Amino acid sequence: MADERHFDEMFGTGEQHREPYRDYRQWFESQDTAWLHRKSDEAETVFRRIGITFNVYGEEEASERLIPFDVVPRIISSREWSRLVRGIRQRIQAMNAFLYDVYHRKEIFRAGRVPIEMIANNDAFLPQMIGVSPPGNVYTHVVGVDIVRTGENEFYVLEDNARTPSGVSYMLENREIMLQMFPELFARVNVQAVGNYPKTLQRSLGNCVPRSCEGTPVIAVLTPGIYNSAYFEHAFLAAQMGAELVEGHDLRVVDGRIAMRTTQGYAPIDVIYRRVDDEYLDPLNFNPQSLLGVPGIFDVYRAGGVTIANAPGTGIADDKAVYSYMPDIIEFYTGEKALLQNVPTWRCAEPDALRYVLDHLDELVVKEVHGSGGYGMLIGPAASRKALAEFRNKLKATPSKYIAQPTLSLSTTPILTKNGLDPRHVDLRIFVLVSPNKIHMTPGGLTRVALNKGSLIVNSSQGGGTKDTWVLEE
Amino acid sequence: MLGKTADGLFWMFRYLERNENTARLLDAGFRIALTRTAAAENEWASVLTTIGVKQAFLEQYERMETAHVIDFLLRDPSNASSVTSVIQAARDNARLLRTALTRELWSDTNECWLTLRELLAHPVRERELPFVLSTIQRQNALLNGTLHNTMMRNEIFNFARLGTFLERADNTARILDVKYYLLLPSVSLVGSSLDNVQWETILRSVSAQRSYHRLHKGDVRPREIANFLMLDLRMPRSLAFCYAKIVDNLTHLAKDYGVRQPCINQAETVFAKLTNRSIEDIFESGVHEFIQDFVRANNALGSQIEKDFRFYG
Fold first, then answer.
1. Which of residues 219-248 of B touch A (CB under 8 A)?
2. Among B1, B98, B103, whose Cβ lies nearest the Cβ of A262?
3. Measured distance CA(A76)–CA(A84) in Å, rounded
4. For chain A, how many structural domains are there in total?
5. How many Å lie between the alpha carbon of A37 and the closest alpha carbon of chain B?
6. Looking at the partner chain, which of B92, B103, B106 has a beta carbon nearest the beta carbon of A226?
7. Please, what is the angle between helix B103-119 and helix B83-96, to 10°?
8. What is the pTM of this model?
9. pLDDT the model gives residue B92
10. Residue A258 · residue A299 · CB < 8 Å
11. Which residue ranges of chain A lie beneath pLDDT 70?
């Protein structure tokens, strides 16, 4: 059943199921497939009814789409999970130390471990943040770490999303729907709960209050508005935390603090969980054309009047070129070897690397340094000759815009198809919450699955779906 | 609560109420069009005037044909008052303030939007019209039921209800405004069967036929109808009933916030005009003027509420 070239998380490399899936498979085999398909349709109806949608850019208003949901869970053992937790904790700790260093003494560059060009010519570096210390020195309050697996013991960090990562609402809603659809499964398999995430997020943000905060911290979620692709998630998280969901035009600076316009006048906010990019945060300090932000918010921030989560300027840590230095960064700040591997990366800005990439283009994945969402990327083995030629020219013209990585043989997990279980490639986004002295990971995450057979692209904008992710109890 | 959220609630519920009213007016108009072909054009003209879209309709069509009127009022995307435009606007508002709604109210609103969108994806044939109109009304009844059964009685509820009753008062007043001549004493003397049908139509368009007949033992008299629609506090679509609710909700807000805003005085003034006068007085001093004054005061109250509660800034 399993494709021999890939590690399948249910079947391993043979016909025998792997241990974490044992109970699930026993249950699965006693189910009627037609009934499972009916359940699958039912799940879609529920998702549509409660409006768990994302908007697709560049299409008309009717473009709210559902992300396809597969009813077969992706299961992770508690041992595997603890290993990921240790690795990610180390990585995120180093990342925050790196950010502090980047915007203060720049020791890692002076030590020659990372070239200064990495920040000097990088749009993600925010000079306005130099010398600014965010409350508790936390930069990345929320991180989405993308993990891929290629074998029983091989896990890699594919990307760190340290700006405004999304997807956590799917983690929560996917679990919610599984509990509704298959309650008996959860009696049979001991799955760790994920439902505490919003509460934990609230507590975590509440521990990062600015100096000006008096009493219970007031938290607000700042959204670009209802046309943003992740609007559903912004509303969902605000509702779950009991926080206000605000847009830039609801806010203004009042007496050195950020305040929201309420039916009874302006009320101050302590922590802004923003889902607006740095560039649009403040038309006075950044992009003057921005209508999404709040004029003067950055000045209030610098004076300690509000916490912005994530801190402005964190993009410098998840930039794909900087990513390639993560093993060095971890070693520099923690004194330990990285517990989780990076995917080997060629920085095309370096002439030797570029030469190698051009020679092996049909074997590699090439990504834009600043790209996201799976756009502007080349998957060598799947690309046409024409696409390869075009990319070769792009690489020669602006090599520093690109990095290249080997095409990983991502693990598969079966999905439910007309013909029963069939393996598809998956990745995993793990959500990390950071507050002073605490790094928390909800046991679970968002499993994205490439629904097209053989495809390696899991992005929802390009034919990807999601699965509920189970971390088993010990 | 954010000013924006109050604004969203207010308009979401105005829009939902508006669709219900449109469905009811269409239902009453369609009844006339079916039974009295000669009177159909006139009836459609007054329905379009009541909804305030007669001019827009005539820019697209020369004559008031039933099929065109139905399509214009239900589905036309260029008509901002069509049921599809209005449910879209209501749902956009609901998305904007999702965090203020219970999970049930949000998902029922979303489902209402999905249902109507599907129902109105293609032109509605006449024989399907009763089903479509009753679906619109029932969806709205469901939302109001969910509002009452799941939402806290707090400022969120108050702003929702203010939207509902301001819109409803406006609608009833507009029906009266368009048909006021039928209520004048000179007409009542005529007493022809046509007029009877017209009066029945008025009652039908506010879902008040049965209640009225129960009260008046089937005796249809214009003055009683006017009294019923304007001053009767038991009738849930009368002007007086709407204003009792408006004053009530504004009073709750004033208590809750500890501030008495100017809008509450305005609402009380309007309410007093509806409670301290008899229908005879009103007819004496001119029913048409009374209704037009009311529509103006109702609009002014809407603007004052927006200002007092900082809907826009």
1. none
2. B1
3. 10
4. 2
5. 23
6. B92
7. 160
8. 0.91
9. 94
10. no
11. 1-4, 14-15, 55-63, 371-375
pLDDT at B313: 75
Beta-bridge partners for A432: A143, A441
Q: pLDDT at position A426, please?
A: 97
Query: What is the CB neighbour count within 10 angstroms for residue B283?
Result: 17
A131 shares a domain with A67: yes
- Structure confidence at residue A128 (pLDDT): 95
Same domain, A366 and A464: no
If interface means Cβ-Cβ distance under 8 Å, which residues of chain A face chain B? 48-51, 226, 231, 235-236, 238-239, 243-247, 249-250, 260-265
Write the residue in B3, B107, B110 that is nearest to A263 by C-beta: B3
Residue A112 lies in a domain: yes
Asked if residue A102 belongs to a domain, the reply is yes
If asked whether residues A332 and A435 sit together in one domain, one would say yes
The domains of chain B are located at 1-151, 154-313
Angle separating helix axes B155-179 and B3-35, nearest 10 degrees: 30
Please compute the mean of the pLDDT values over residues B112-128 and round it to a whole number: 95
Q: Are A358 and A464 in the same domain?
A: no
Beta-carbon pairs below 8 A across chains A and B? 58
Instruction: In whole angstroms, give the CA distance from residue A162 to residue A140.
Output: 6
Residue of A nearest to B117 (CA): A62
Q: pLDDT grade, residue B216 (50/70/90)?
A: confident
Instruction: Specify the pLDDT at position A412.
Output: 95
User: Does B6 contact A at CB distance below 8 Å?
Assistant: yes
Mean pLDDT confidence for B164-186: 88
What is the model's pLDDT at position B195? 65
Q: Please give the residue range of the domain that contains residue A150.
A: 19-210+306-339+409-471
Asked if A467 and A353 sit in the same domain, the reply is no
> Is A249 contained in some domain?
no
**Angstroms from A50 CA to nearest CA on chain B:** 5
Q: Are residues A394 and A466 in the same domain?
A: no
Q: Per the CB < 8 Å rule, is B2 touching A250?
A: yes
Query: Does residue A35 lie within any of the structural domains?
Result: yes
Q: On the CB side of A27, how many CA atoms lie within 13 Å of its CA?
A: 15
B110 with A49: Cβ contact below 8 A: yes
- DSSP secondary-structure letter at A116? T
Which chain B residues are Cβ-neighbours of A250 within 8 angstroms?
Answer: 2-4
- Predicted ipTM? 0.86
Q: Do B2 and A49 touch (CB under 8 A)?
A: no
- Residue B190 burial (10 A CB sphere; 0-12, 13-18, 19+): exposed
CATH of the domain at A355: 3.30.1490.270
Same domain for A466 and A366, yes or no, is: no
pLDDT of the residue at A12: 84
